[in-house]
């Protein structure tokens, strides 16, 4: 048994990074790790900040992949799209796991620093709103909390002007089945996507002959997978809020749990869910 300290440099590992890019340089850790600025001296505020900051990073990646998947769908590059959709579902799974850490904070611990948050609230996350807009839940009233930030506000407005990912999926559905989009309903650019019989009839054709329409079937199931994880994320949010603050009003002025429960009722891809009762 050796008593000398292990030296990675003896095996060729670089030990001097002066003038070279290091791990911290590449990830810009100096800036990243300096962004946690608690507004109180309470221990649990650091957990609260980091949980939300890391969730925003995962949402940034989710949007990056969602936009790439939409572009792949438009150019009918289905292998790339399926890879990205699978990754998005795993990102939502990661976001779900974050709630488990936050739930270690008790109501008494949160109450110690809650007032320091002022009117700030996750309700104001422009990235969460963008994810909803891209997927097809498009409430123009939700633009208002972002009016004070012109760039973010304009990004959300621009998204409302273009077909959502689900609109593009429906376009691909009609084009693949019929060779034309003439019978396709117009994209729903505002409000949550409402189930339409013409769209549900097309998905029904896919599910009743899976072998003949395997690509469309795989697309539908990938969408169900994403919404499944997304619903769990919203449910875990409701459960965590109720566990920590009960039915108090949210810091941003929403009804808190009552508002979040209302969001659980929203379906992103209703036709695909509805047809399951018919099969």
What are the SSEs and their pairings?
Layout: H1 23-27, H2 29-32, H3 45-74, H4 78-102, H5 107-111, H6 126-135, E1 137-138, H7 150-160, H8 165-178, E2 191-192, H9 197-208, H10 214-245, H11 257-264, H12 270-274
Antiparallel strand pairs: 1-2
Describe the structure in your own words.
The chain has helices at residues 23-27, 29-32, 45-74, 78-102, 107-111, 126-135, 150-160, 165-178, 197-208, 214-245, 257-264, 270-274, and strands spanning 137-138, 191-192. By secondary structure, it is mostly helical. Strands 1-2 form a two-stranded antiparallel ribbon. The radius of gyration is 23 Å and the shape is globular. 22% of the residues are buried. The model has no long low-confidence stretch (mean pLDDT 89).
Q: What number is the mean pLDDT?
A: 89
Give the uncertain stretches in residue-range form.
none
The major beta sheet can be summarized as: 2 strands, antiparallel
Helix share, percent: 55-70%
Give the strand line-up of the largest sheet.
Answer: 1-2
Q: Report the sheet-strand fraction.
A: under 5%
The end-to-end span amounts to: 67 Å
Shape: globular
N-to-C order of helices and strands: HHHHHHEHHEHHHH
Rg (C-alpha, Å): 23 Å
Which structural class fits the helix and strand makeup?
A: mainly alpha
> How many helices in DSSP terms?
12
Beta-strand segment tally? 2
